[in-house]
Amino acid sequence: MHTPTYAPAYLAAELRLPTNGLDYAILGIYFAVVLGIGFAARRSVKTSLDFFLSGRSLPAWITGLAFISANLAATEILGMAANSAQYGAYTVHWYWIGAIPAMVFLGLVMMPFYYGSKVRSVPEFLLLRFDKGAHLLSSILFAFAAILIAGVNLYALAIVVQALLGWPQWVAIVVAGFFVLAYITLGGLSSAIYNEVLQFFVILAALIPIVVLSLKKVGGWDGLTHKLTATHGHDFTTAWGGTGIGHANPLGANWLTIVLGLGFVLSFGYWTTNFAEVQRALSAKNLSAAQRTPLIAAFPKIFIVFLVMIPGLAAAALVPKIGTSGSGLQYNDAIPYLMQELLPNGVLGIAVTGLLAAFMAGMAANVSSFNTVFTTDIWAKYVVKDREDSYYVRFGRLITAIGVLASVGTAFLASSFSNIMSYLQTLFSFFNVPMFVVFIVGMFWKRASMKSGFWGLLAGTTAAMVNYFVLYKKDIIHLPSDQGANFVSAIAGFVAGAVVMVAVSLFTKPKPERELQGLVYGTRSPGLSEPPAPGDAAWYRRPALLGWGAVVLAALCYIPFSF
Questions:
Q1: What is residue 284's three-state secondary structure?
Q2: Distance CA 217, CA 353 (A)
Q3: Bridge partners, 449 (sequence order)
Q4: CA–CA separation, 131 and 453 (whole Å)
Q5: What's the total number of domains in the chain?
Q6: Same domain flag for 371 and 253
Q7: Residues 161 and 135 in one domain
Q8: pLDDT for the residue 275
Q9: CB under 8 Å to 25, separation ≥6 — which residues?
Q10: pLDDT in tens, 194-247
Protein backbone atom coordinates (compact mmCIF):
# COMPACT_ATOMS: atom_id res chain seq x y z
CA MET A 1 0.00 0.00 0.00
CA HIS A 2 0.95 3.60 -0.42
CA THR A 3 1.13 6.47 1.95
CA PRO A 4 -1.41 8.65 3.74
CA THR A 5 -1.88 12.36 4.04
CA TYR A 6 0.88 14.67 5.13
CA ALA A 7 2.34 18.03 4.20
CA PRO A 8 2.39 19.23 0.56
CA ALA A 9 4.54 17.24 -1.81
CA TYR A 10 6.83 20.00 -3.04
CA LEU A 11 10.45 19.55 -2.06
CA ALA A 12 12.55 22.40 -0.74
CA ALA A 13 14.70 24.05 -3.40
CA GLU A 14 17.62 24.32 -0.99
CA LEU A 15 17.99 20.53 -1.05
CA ARG A 16 20.01 20.67 -4.30
CA LEU A 17 22.52 17.82 -4.16
CA PRO A 18 26.26 18.36 -4.76
CA THR A 19 26.40 15.82 -7.60
CA ASN A 20 29.50 15.52 -9.79
CA GLY A 21 30.62 13.61 -12.88
CA LEU A 22 30.92 10.30 -10.99
CA ASP A 23 27.29 10.48 -9.87
CA TYR A 24 26.09 11.25 -13.40
CA ALA A 25 28.25 8.42 -14.79
CA ILE A 26 26.48 5.95 -12.46
CA LEU A 27 23.13 7.32 -13.62
CA GLY A 28 24.17 6.99 -17.28
CA ILE A 29 25.29 3.37 -16.80
CA TYR A 30 21.92 2.54 -15.24
CA PHE A 31 19.96 3.99 -18.17
CA ALA A 32 22.19 2.11 -20.64
CA VAL A 33 21.56 -1.20 -18.82
CA VAL A 34 17.80 -0.53 -18.78
CA LEU A 35 17.74 -0.12 -22.56
CA GLY A 36 20.04 -3.13 -22.99
CA ILE A 37 17.56 -5.32 -21.11
CA GLY A 38 14.80 -4.04 -23.40
CA PHE A 39 16.74 -4.98 -26.54
CA ALA A 40 17.66 -8.40 -25.09
CA ALA A 41 14.04 -9.15 -24.15
CA ARG A 42 12.82 -8.19 -27.62
CA ARG A 43 14.23 -11.43 -29.04
CA SER A 44 11.86 -13.50 -26.90
CA VAL A 45 8.68 -11.70 -28.07
CA LYS A 46 7.06 -13.81 -30.77
CA THR A 47 3.40 -13.97 -29.69
CA SER A 48 0.94 -11.78 -27.81
CA LEU A 49 1.30 -14.10 -24.81
CA ASP A 50 5.03 -13.39 -24.86
CA PHE A 51 4.45 -9.63 -25.05
CA PHE A 52 1.71 -9.36 -22.42
CA LEU A 53 2.55 -12.23 -20.01
CA SER A 54 6.16 -13.25 -20.81
CA GLY A 55 4.82 -16.49 -22.30
CA ARG A 56 3.96 -17.67 -18.76
CA SER A 57 7.55 -18.89 -18.51
CA LEU A 58 9.29 -17.06 -15.65
CA PRO A 59 10.59 -18.68 -12.42
CA ALA A 60 9.06 -17.72 -9.07
CA TRP A 61 12.09 -15.83 -7.73
CA ILE A 62 12.06 -13.52 -10.77
CA THR A 63 8.33 -12.84 -10.59
CA GLY A 64 8.49 -12.50 -6.79
CA LEU A 65 11.16 -9.78 -6.90
CA ALA A 66 9.34 -8.03 -9.75
CA PHE A 67 6.12 -8.19 -7.71
CA ILE A 68 7.65 -6.30 -4.78
CA SER A 69 9.63 -3.93 -7.01
CA ALA A 70 6.50 -2.92 -8.91
CA ASN A 71 5.02 -1.76 -5.60
CA LEU A 72 8.22 -0.15 -4.32
CA ALA A 73 7.79 3.05 -6.31
CA ALA A 74 9.57 6.17 -5.15
CA THR A 75 6.19 7.63 -4.19
CA GLU A 76 6.18 4.91 -1.55
CA ILE A 77 9.83 5.40 -0.56
CA LEU A 78 9.56 9.16 -0.13
CA GLY A 79 6.01 8.97 1.16
CA MET A 80 6.57 6.31 3.81
CA ALA A 81 9.67 8.13 5.07
CA ALA A 82 7.58 11.30 5.24
CA ASN A 83 4.83 9.36 7.00
CA SER A 84 7.37 8.20 9.59
CA ALA A 85 8.72 11.71 10.11
CA GLN A 86 5.19 12.91 10.82
CA TYR A 87 3.51 9.96 12.55
CA GLY A 88 6.39 7.80 13.77
CA ALA A 89 6.12 4.03 14.10
CA TYR A 90 2.50 3.99 12.85
CA THR A 91 4.13 3.38 9.47
CA VAL A 92 4.55 -0.33 10.26
CA HIS A 93 0.78 -0.77 9.87
CA TRP A 94 1.01 -0.13 6.12
CA TYR A 95 3.30 -3.16 5.84
CA TRP A 96 2.48 -5.72 8.53
CA ILE A 97 -1.29 -5.13 8.52
CA GLY A 98 -1.79 -3.31 5.22
CA ALA A 99 0.22 -5.66 2.98
CA ILE A 100 1.45 -9.03 4.33
CA PRO A 101 -1.93 -10.71 5.09
CA ALA A 102 -3.38 -9.63 1.72
CA MET A 103 -0.29 -10.84 -0.16
CA VAL A 104 -0.56 -14.21 1.57
CA PHE A 105 -4.28 -14.39 0.76
CA LEU A 106 -3.53 -13.63 -2.90
CA GLY A 107 -0.97 -16.43 -3.08
CA LEU A 108 -2.86 -19.12 -1.18
CA VAL A 109 -6.48 -18.41 -2.12
CA MET A 110 -6.81 -16.26 -5.22
CA MET A 111 -3.93 -17.28 -7.49
CA PRO A 112 -5.36 -20.76 -8.08
CA PHE A 113 -8.47 -19.04 -9.51
CA TYR A 114 -6.51 -16.54 -11.59
CA TYR A 115 -3.85 -18.90 -12.91
CA GLY A 116 -6.05 -21.98 -13.14
CA SER A 117 -8.61 -20.18 -15.30
CA LYS A 118 -5.78 -19.13 -17.70
CA VAL A 119 -7.01 -15.53 -17.86
CA ARG A 120 -4.66 -12.87 -19.20
CA SER A 121 -5.85 -10.16 -16.83
CA VAL A 122 -7.86 -9.52 -13.68
CA PRO A 123 -10.86 -8.03 -15.59
CA GLU A 124 -10.97 -11.12 -17.82
CA PHE A 125 -11.71 -13.20 -14.74
CA LEU A 126 -14.86 -11.10 -14.23
CA LEU A 127 -15.92 -11.96 -17.78
CA LEU A 128 -15.76 -15.66 -16.94
CA ARG A 129 -17.44 -15.31 -13.54
CA PHE A 130 -20.09 -12.68 -14.40
CA ASP A 131 -20.83 -11.14 -17.81
CA LYS A 132 -19.65 -8.63 -20.41
CA GLY A 133 -21.07 -5.70 -18.44
CA ALA A 134 -18.88 -6.39 -15.39
CA HIS A 135 -15.91 -7.14 -17.64
CA LEU A 136 -16.12 -3.97 -19.73
CA LEU A 137 -16.76 -1.67 -16.75
CA SER A 138 -13.86 -3.15 -14.76
CA SER A 139 -11.55 -2.92 -17.80
CA ILE A 140 -12.37 0.75 -18.38
CA LEU A 141 -12.02 1.64 -14.70
CA PHE A 142 -8.71 -0.19 -14.39
CA ALA A 143 -7.23 1.32 -17.57
CA PHE A 144 -8.24 4.80 -16.40
CA ALA A 145 -6.79 4.26 -12.92
CA ALA A 146 -3.53 2.80 -14.31
CA ILE A 147 -2.88 5.91 -16.39
CA LEU A 148 -3.68 8.21 -13.46
CA ILE A 149 -1.33 6.31 -11.14
CA ALA A 150 1.46 6.19 -13.75
CA GLY A 151 1.07 9.96 -14.03
CA VAL A 152 1.45 10.33 -10.26
CA ASN A 153 4.77 8.46 -10.44
CA LEU A 154 5.96 10.66 -13.29
CA TYR A 155 5.02 13.87 -11.52
CA ALA A 156 6.59 12.75 -8.23
CA LEU A 157 9.77 11.94 -10.13
CA ALA A 158 9.73 15.40 -11.71
CA ILE A 159 9.49 17.32 -8.45
CA VAL A 160 12.23 15.23 -6.86
CA VAL A 161 14.61 15.57 -9.81
CA GLN A 162 13.93 19.29 -10.03
CA ALA A 163 14.75 19.78 -6.35
CA LEU A 164 17.76 17.45 -6.20
CA LEU A 165 19.39 17.86 -9.61
CA GLY A 166 17.96 21.12 -10.89
CA TRP A 167 16.32 19.64 -14.00
CA PRO A 168 13.09 21.38 -15.13
CA GLN A 169 10.00 19.30 -14.34
CA TRP A 170 9.03 18.79 -17.99
CA VAL A 171 12.52 17.50 -18.82
CA ALA A 172 12.38 14.89 -16.05
CA ILE A 173 8.88 13.80 -17.14
CA VAL A 174 9.87 13.44 -20.80
CA VAL A 175 13.18 11.64 -20.10
CA ALA A 176 11.68 9.10 -17.69
CA GLY A 177 8.66 8.58 -19.95
CA PHE A 178 10.95 7.94 -22.93
CA PHE A 179 13.00 5.24 -21.19
CA VAL A 180 9.92 3.43 -19.83
CA LEU A 181 8.30 3.61 -23.29
CA ALA A 182 11.46 2.30 -24.96
CA TYR A 183 12.02 -0.80 -22.86
CA ILE A 184 8.36 -1.84 -22.58
CA THR A 185 7.73 -1.33 -26.30
CA LEU A 186 10.83 -3.36 -27.13
CA GLY A 187 10.48 -6.32 -24.80
CA GLY A 188 6.95 -6.20 -23.40
CA LEU A 189 6.32 -7.55 -19.91
CA SER A 190 9.58 -9.53 -19.84
CA SER A 191 11.54 -6.32 -20.26
CA ALA A 192 9.53 -4.65 -17.50
CA ILE A 193 9.96 -7.61 -15.13
CA TYR A 194 13.72 -8.08 -15.62
CA ASN A 195 14.21 -4.34 -15.20
CA GLU A 196 12.14 -4.48 -12.01
CA VAL A 197 14.45 -7.18 -10.63
CA LEU A 198 17.43 -4.91 -11.39
CA GLN A 199 15.58 -1.94 -9.90
CA PHE A 200 14.87 -3.86 -6.69
CA PHE A 201 18.59 -4.25 -5.97
CA VAL A 202 19.38 -0.69 -7.07
CA ILE A 203 16.69 0.59 -4.66
CA LEU A 204 18.18 -1.45 -1.80
CA ALA A 205 21.66 -0.14 -2.66
CA ALA A 206 20.25 3.38 -2.40
CA LEU A 207 18.37 2.93 0.89
CA ILE A 208 20.78 0.85 2.98
CA PRO A 209 23.58 3.50 3.17
CA ILE A 210 20.99 6.12 4.16
CA VAL A 211 19.69 3.89 6.97
CA VAL A 212 23.15 2.98 8.29
CA LEU A 213 24.53 6.52 8.20
CA SER A 214 21.38 8.11 9.65
CA LEU A 215 21.40 5.65 12.58
CA LYS A 216 25.06 6.42 13.18
CA LYS A 217 24.29 10.14 13.10
CA VAL A 218 21.61 9.90 15.82
CA GLY A 219 23.51 7.51 18.10
CA GLY A 220 22.05 4.17 17.08
CA TRP A 221 18.57 2.83 17.76
CA ASP A 222 18.71 3.70 21.47
CA GLY A 223 19.79 7.25 20.72
CA LEU A 224 17.04 7.58 18.11
CA THR A 225 14.23 6.40 20.38
CA HIS A 226 15.52 8.51 23.28
CA LYS A 227 15.54 11.70 21.19
CA LEU A 228 12.12 11.03 19.68
CA THR A 229 10.55 10.21 23.03
CA ALA A 230 11.88 13.50 24.43
CA THR A 231 10.63 15.62 21.51
CA HIS A 232 7.53 13.77 20.28
CA GLY A 233 6.34 11.65 23.22
CA HIS A 234 6.35 7.92 23.92
CA ASP A 235 3.61 7.06 21.41
CA PHE A 236 5.77 8.26 18.51
CA THR A 237 7.95 5.14 18.74
CA THR A 238 5.10 2.64 19.29
CA ALA A 239 2.73 1.12 16.76
CA TRP A 240 -0.52 1.26 18.76
CA GLY A 241 -0.07 4.16 21.19
CA GLY A 242 -3.03 6.55 21.09
CA THR A 243 -5.14 4.40 18.76
CA GLY A 244 -7.81 3.52 21.30
CA ILE A 245 -11.41 4.26 20.28
CA GLY A 246 -12.24 7.81 21.31
CA HIS A 247 -8.58 8.86 21.60
CA ALA A 248 -7.20 11.57 19.33
CA ASN A 249 -4.05 10.96 17.31
CA PRO A 250 -2.45 12.69 14.29
CA LEU A 251 -3.32 9.78 12.01
CA GLY A 252 -7.03 10.40 12.51
CA ALA A 253 -7.75 6.68 12.86
CA ASN A 254 -8.28 4.30 15.79
CA TRP A 255 -7.29 0.65 15.92
CA LEU A 256 -10.64 -0.48 14.49
CA THR A 257 -10.45 1.71 11.38
CA ILE A 258 -6.78 0.73 10.96
CA VAL A 259 -7.65 -2.98 11.05
CA LEU A 260 -10.85 -2.78 8.97
CA GLY A 261 -10.21 0.19 6.68
CA LEU A 262 -6.51 -0.38 6.04
CA GLY A 263 -5.89 -3.99 7.04
CA PHE A 264 -8.91 -5.48 5.26
CA VAL A 265 -10.69 -3.26 2.74
CA LEU A 266 -7.92 -1.07 1.28
CA SER A 267 -5.19 -3.69 1.67
CA PHE A 268 -7.05 -6.65 0.19
CA GLY A 269 -8.57 -4.41 -2.46
CA TYR A 270 -5.12 -3.29 -3.58
CA TRP A 271 -3.06 -6.48 -3.38
CA THR A 272 -5.59 -9.01 -4.67
CA THR A 273 -7.19 -7.16 -7.61
CA ASN A 274 -4.56 -4.65 -8.76
CA PHE A 275 -3.47 -6.10 -12.09
CA ALA A 276 -0.21 -4.15 -12.00
CA GLU A 277 0.79 -6.60 -9.23
CA VAL A 278 -1.16 -9.73 -10.23
CA GLN A 279 0.26 -9.58 -13.77
CA ARG A 280 3.69 -10.49 -12.39
CA ALA A 281 2.31 -13.66 -10.84
CA LEU A 282 0.37 -14.56 -14.01
CA SER A 283 3.66 -14.56 -15.95
CA ALA A 284 5.05 -17.39 -13.78
CA LYS A 285 5.83 -20.75 -15.40
CA ASN A 286 3.28 -22.86 -13.47
CA LEU A 287 0.67 -22.64 -10.72
CA SER A 288 3.14 -23.37 -7.93
CA ALA A 289 5.41 -20.55 -9.11
CA ALA A 290 2.40 -18.22 -9.46
CA GLN A 291 1.32 -18.94 -5.87
CA ARG A 292 4.84 -18.44 -4.55
CA THR A 293 5.23 -15.08 -6.33
CA PRO A 294 3.39 -12.90 -3.75
CA LEU A 295 4.66 -15.10 -0.90
CA ILE A 296 8.29 -14.64 -1.91
CA ALA A 297 7.58 -10.90 -2.21
CA ALA A 298 6.05 -10.86 1.29
CA PHE A 299 9.37 -11.66 2.99
CA PRO A 300 11.30 -8.57 1.79
CA LYS A 301 8.12 -6.53 2.31
CA ILE A 302 8.35 -7.36 6.03
CA PHE A 303 11.76 -5.73 6.32
CA ILE A 304 11.53 -2.94 3.74
CA VAL A 305 9.50 -0.96 6.28
CA PHE A 306 12.71 -0.44 8.27
CA LEU A 307 14.49 0.95 5.19
CA VAL A 308 11.87 3.65 4.73
CA MET A 309 10.77 4.19 8.33
CA ILE A 310 14.19 4.66 9.97
CA PRO A 311 15.22 7.56 7.66
CA GLY A 312 11.92 9.28 8.46
CA LEU A 313 12.41 8.82 12.19
CA ALA A 314 16.02 9.99 11.93
CA ALA A 315 14.94 13.12 10.06
CA ALA A 316 12.39 13.84 12.81
CA ALA A 317 15.13 13.44 15.43
CA LEU A 318 17.67 15.60 13.58
CA VAL A 319 15.14 18.30 12.60
CA PRO A 320 12.56 18.24 15.43
CA LYS A 321 10.41 20.91 13.73
CA ILE A 322 10.38 19.24 10.31
CA GLY A 323 7.08 19.84 8.57
CA THR A 324 6.56 23.22 10.23
CA SER A 325 7.34 26.70 8.92
CA GLY A 326 10.14 26.96 11.48
CA SER A 327 12.34 24.32 9.81
CA GLY A 328 12.01 25.16 6.13
CA LEU A 329 11.62 21.43 5.40
CA GLN A 330 8.48 19.46 4.61
CA TYR A 331 7.94 15.85 5.73
CA ASN A 332 8.52 14.83 2.10
CA ASP A 333 12.06 16.18 2.40
CA ALA A 334 13.18 13.51 4.90
CA ILE A 335 15.15 11.24 2.54
CA PRO A 336 16.48 14.05 0.26
CA TYR A 337 17.66 15.91 3.38
CA LEU A 338 19.56 12.84 4.62
CA MET A 339 21.01 12.25 1.15
CA GLN A 340 22.32 15.81 1.12
CA GLU A 341 23.73 15.66 4.65
CA LEU A 342 25.19 12.15 4.82
CA LEU A 343 26.10 10.68 1.42
CA PRO A 344 29.45 11.18 -0.32
CA ASN A 345 29.75 11.43 -4.10
CA GLY A 346 29.48 8.04 -5.76
CA VAL A 347 27.15 6.77 -3.05
CA LEU A 348 25.07 9.85 -3.79
CA GLY A 349 24.90 8.81 -7.43
CA ILE A 350 23.67 5.36 -6.40
CA ALA A 351 21.00 6.94 -4.18
CA VAL A 352 19.74 9.22 -6.95
CA THR A 353 19.76 6.29 -9.37
CA GLY A 354 17.78 4.27 -6.81
CA LEU A 355 15.11 6.95 -6.60
CA LEU A 356 14.83 7.14 -10.40
CA ALA A 357 14.71 3.33 -10.58
CA ALA A 358 11.89 3.27 -8.06
CA PHE A 359 9.86 5.82 -10.00
CA MET A 360 10.40 3.96 -13.25
CA ALA A 361 9.43 0.62 -11.68
CA GLY A 362 6.15 2.07 -10.43
CA MET A 363 5.35 3.70 -13.75
CA ALA A 364 6.36 0.66 -15.82
CA ALA A 365 4.13 -1.63 -13.73
CA ASN A 366 1.10 0.52 -14.45
CA VAL A 367 1.91 1.05 -18.14
CA SER A 368 2.52 -2.67 -18.79
CA SER A 369 -0.74 -3.61 -17.06
CA PHE A 370 -2.58 -0.85 -18.94
CA ASN A 371 -1.43 -2.06 -22.37
CA THR A 372 -2.50 -5.64 -21.53
CA VAL A 373 -5.98 -4.69 -20.31
CA PHE A 374 -6.63 -2.20 -23.10
CA THR A 375 -5.46 -4.60 -25.83
CA THR A 376 -6.86 -7.94 -24.63
CA ASP A 377 -9.92 -6.83 -22.65
CA ILE A 378 -11.18 -3.80 -24.57
CA TRP A 379 -9.74 -3.69 -28.10
CA ALA A 380 -9.63 -7.42 -28.93
CA LYS A 381 -13.00 -8.25 -27.35
CA TYR A 382 -15.15 -5.25 -28.26
CA VAL A 383 -13.51 -3.23 -31.06
CA VAL A 384 -11.36 -5.31 -33.44
CA LYS A 385 -12.09 -9.00 -32.94
CA ASP A 386 -10.49 -12.17 -34.29
CA ARG A 387 -7.43 -10.67 -35.97
CA GLU A 388 -4.13 -12.50 -36.33
CA ASP A 389 -1.97 -12.65 -33.22
CA SER A 390 0.76 -10.44 -34.68
CA TYR A 391 -1.77 -7.62 -35.08
CA TYR A 392 -2.40 -7.54 -31.32
CA VAL A 393 1.35 -7.47 -30.60
CA ARG A 394 1.70 -4.44 -32.90
CA PHE A 395 -1.34 -2.81 -31.33
CA GLY A 396 0.06 -3.53 -27.85
CA ARG A 397 3.20 -1.59 -28.74
CA LEU A 398 1.12 1.27 -30.15
CA ILE A 399 -1.14 1.51 -27.09
CA THR A 400 1.97 1.46 -24.87
CA ALA A 401 3.14 4.65 -26.58
CA ILE A 402 -0.32 6.18 -26.22
CA GLY A 403 -0.42 5.15 -22.55
CA VAL A 404 2.93 6.80 -21.82
CA LEU A 405 1.81 10.00 -23.56
CA ALA A 406 -1.43 9.93 -21.55
CA SER A 407 0.62 9.42 -18.37
CA VAL A 408 2.59 12.56 -19.21
CA GLY A 409 -0.73 14.40 -19.39
CA THR A 410 -1.98 13.00 -16.09
CA ALA A 411 1.39 13.87 -14.52
CA PHE A 412 0.54 17.52 -15.11
CA LEU A 413 -2.99 16.83 -13.79
CA ALA A 414 -1.42 15.48 -10.58
CA SER A 415 0.48 18.76 -10.24
CA SER A 416 -2.83 20.50 -9.48
CA PHE A 417 -3.15 18.52 -6.23
CA SER A 418 -1.31 19.89 -3.20
CA ASN A 419 -0.71 16.37 -1.84
CA ILE A 420 -0.07 13.66 -4.42
CA MET A 421 0.05 10.90 -1.76
CA SER A 422 -3.47 11.68 -0.60
CA TYR A 423 -4.51 11.77 -4.27
CA LEU A 424 -2.98 8.33 -4.84
CA GLN A 425 -4.64 6.80 -1.79
CA THR A 426 -7.98 8.27 -2.87
CA LEU A 427 -7.66 6.56 -6.26
CA PHE A 428 -7.20 3.19 -4.55
CA SER A 429 -10.39 3.65 -2.50
CA PHE A 430 -12.33 4.49 -5.68
CA PHE A 431 -11.05 1.79 -8.02
CA ASN A 432 -9.50 -1.14 -6.14
CA VAL A 433 -11.92 -1.62 -3.26
CA PRO A 434 -15.14 -1.96 -5.36
CA MET A 435 -13.39 -4.49 -7.62
CA PHE A 436 -12.27 -6.46 -4.57
CA VAL A 437 -15.81 -6.81 -3.20
CA VAL A 438 -17.04 -8.08 -6.58
CA PHE A 439 -14.23 -10.63 -6.66
CA ILE A 440 -14.65 -11.81 -3.11
CA VAL A 441 -18.44 -12.23 -3.34
CA GLY A 442 -18.18 -13.90 -6.74
CA MET A 443 -15.46 -16.31 -5.62
CA PHE A 444 -17.17 -17.44 -2.41
CA TRP A 445 -20.90 -17.31 -3.27
CA LYS A 446 -22.20 -19.46 -6.11
CA ARG A 447 -25.57 -17.70 -6.06
CA ALA A 448 -24.02 -14.34 -7.07
CA SER A 449 -25.70 -13.73 -10.43
CA MET A 450 -24.13 -12.62 -13.70
CA LYS A 451 -25.71 -9.16 -13.46
CA SER A 452 -24.63 -8.60 -9.86
CA GLY A 453 -20.99 -8.05 -10.86
CA PHE A 454 -21.70 -4.96 -12.94
CA TRP A 455 -24.10 -3.37 -10.46
CA GLY A 456 -21.91 -4.18 -7.44
CA LEU A 457 -18.88 -2.60 -9.11
CA LEU A 458 -20.86 0.47 -10.13
CA ALA A 459 -22.44 0.86 -6.67
CA GLY A 460 -19.13 0.44 -4.83
CA THR A 461 -17.30 2.98 -6.99
CA THR A 462 -20.18 5.46 -6.74
CA ALA A 463 -20.49 5.11 -2.94
CA ALA A 464 -16.74 5.67 -2.41
CA MET A 465 -16.81 8.78 -4.60
CA VAL A 466 -19.95 10.18 -2.96
CA ASN A 467 -18.47 9.70 0.51
CA TYR A 468 -15.26 11.50 -0.46
CA PHE A 469 -16.45 14.30 -2.74
CA VAL A 470 -19.85 15.02 -1.18
CA LEU A 471 -19.98 13.92 2.45
CA TYR A 472 -16.34 14.62 3.35
CA LYS A 473 -15.35 17.50 1.07
CA LYS A 474 -18.58 19.42 1.75
CA ASP A 475 -18.15 18.75 5.50
CA ILE A 476 -21.48 16.96 5.83
CA ILE A 477 -19.61 14.43 7.95
CA HIS A 478 -16.49 15.46 9.85
CA LEU A 479 -13.39 13.32 9.44
CA PRO A 480 -10.06 14.41 10.98
CA SER A 481 -7.86 13.87 7.90
CA ASP A 482 -7.86 12.93 4.22
CA GLN A 483 -6.45 9.54 5.20
CA GLY A 484 -9.31 8.95 7.61
CA ALA A 485 -11.70 9.92 4.80
CA ASN A 486 -10.02 7.39 2.49
CA PHE A 487 -10.49 4.64 5.09
CA VAL A 488 -14.18 5.51 5.42
CA SER A 489 -14.62 5.78 1.62
CA ALA A 490 -13.11 2.32 1.22
CA ILE A 491 -15.45 0.84 3.83
CA ALA A 492 -18.45 2.61 2.24
CA GLY A 493 -17.52 1.29 -1.21
CA PHE A 494 -17.08 -2.24 0.11
CA VAL A 495 -20.40 -2.30 2.00
CA ALA A 496 -22.39 -0.70 -0.84
CA GLY A 497 -20.95 -3.08 -3.41
CA ALA A 498 -21.68 -6.15 -1.28
CA VAL A 499 -25.24 -5.08 -0.43
CA VAL A 500 -26.10 -4.31 -4.06
CA MET A 501 -24.61 -7.61 -5.26
CA VAL A 502 -26.71 -9.58 -2.79
CA ALA A 503 -29.88 -7.62 -3.66
CA VAL A 504 -29.40 -7.97 -7.44
CA SER A 505 -28.56 -11.69 -7.10
CA LEU A 506 -31.82 -12.35 -5.29
CA PHE A 507 -33.81 -11.01 -8.27
CA THR A 508 -31.73 -12.27 -11.22
CA LYS A 509 -30.66 -15.68 -12.45
CA PRO A 510 -27.39 -17.20 -11.24
CA LYS A 511 -24.83 -18.50 -13.68
CA PRO A 512 -25.23 -22.22 -14.50
CA GLU A 513 -23.16 -24.25 -12.07
CA ARG A 514 -21.30 -26.06 -14.85
CA GLU A 515 -19.88 -22.68 -15.95
CA LEU A 516 -18.55 -21.91 -12.46
CA GLN A 517 -15.95 -24.70 -12.32
CA GLY A 518 -12.63 -23.23 -11.26
CA LEU A 519 -14.20 -19.80 -10.67
CA VAL A 520 -15.88 -20.32 -7.29
CA TYR A 521 -14.31 -21.63 -4.09
CA GLY A 522 -14.84 -25.37 -3.71
CA THR A 523 -14.86 -26.09 -7.45
CA ARG A 524 -11.94 -27.24 -9.56
CA SER A 525 -10.82 -26.48 -13.10
CA PRO A 526 -8.61 -28.48 -15.48
CA GLY A 527 -5.96 -25.80 -15.08
CA LEU A 528 -5.44 -26.86 -11.46
CA SER A 529 -4.79 -30.52 -12.23
CA GLU A 530 -1.24 -29.99 -13.44
CA PRO A 531 1.32 -32.36 -11.87
CA PRO A 532 3.63 -30.88 -9.25
CA ALA A 533 6.99 -29.66 -10.42
CA PRO A 534 10.03 -31.77 -9.43
CA GLY A 535 11.05 -31.04 -5.87
CA ASP A 536 7.74 -29.41 -4.91
CA ALA A 537 7.91 -31.25 -1.58
CA ALA A 538 10.75 -28.94 -0.52
CA TRP A 539 9.69 -26.39 2.10
CA TYR A 540 10.51 -23.41 -0.12
CA ARG A 541 8.16 -24.80 -2.81
CA ARG A 542 5.18 -25.12 -0.46
CA PRO A 543 3.08 -21.96 -0.77
CA ALA A 544 1.08 -22.52 2.42
CA LEU A 545 4.23 -22.90 4.53
CA LEU A 546 5.80 -19.81 2.96
CA GLY A 547 2.62 -17.83 3.46
CA TRP A 548 2.03 -18.65 7.09
CA GLY A 549 5.74 -18.14 7.77
CA ALA A 550 5.45 -14.59 6.41
CA VAL A 551 2.39 -13.87 8.58
CA VAL A 552 4.04 -15.21 11.74
CA LEU A 553 7.25 -13.29 11.09
CA ALA A 554 5.31 -10.05 10.48
CA ALA A 555 3.37 -10.59 13.72
CA LEU A 556 6.58 -11.16 15.66
CA CYS A 557 8.04 -7.94 14.22
CA TYR A 558 5.25 -6.00 15.97
CA ILE A 559 6.48 -6.95 19.43
CA PRO A 560 9.25 -4.30 19.73
CA PHE A 561 6.84 -1.55 18.61
CA SER A 562 3.86 -2.46 20.76
CA PHE A 563 4.95 -1.12 24.14
A1: strand
A2: 23
A3: 510
A4: 8
A5: 2
A6: yes
A7: yes
A8: 85
A9: 349
A10: 888 988 898 898 899 999 999 999 889 889 888 888 887 777 888 777 666 666
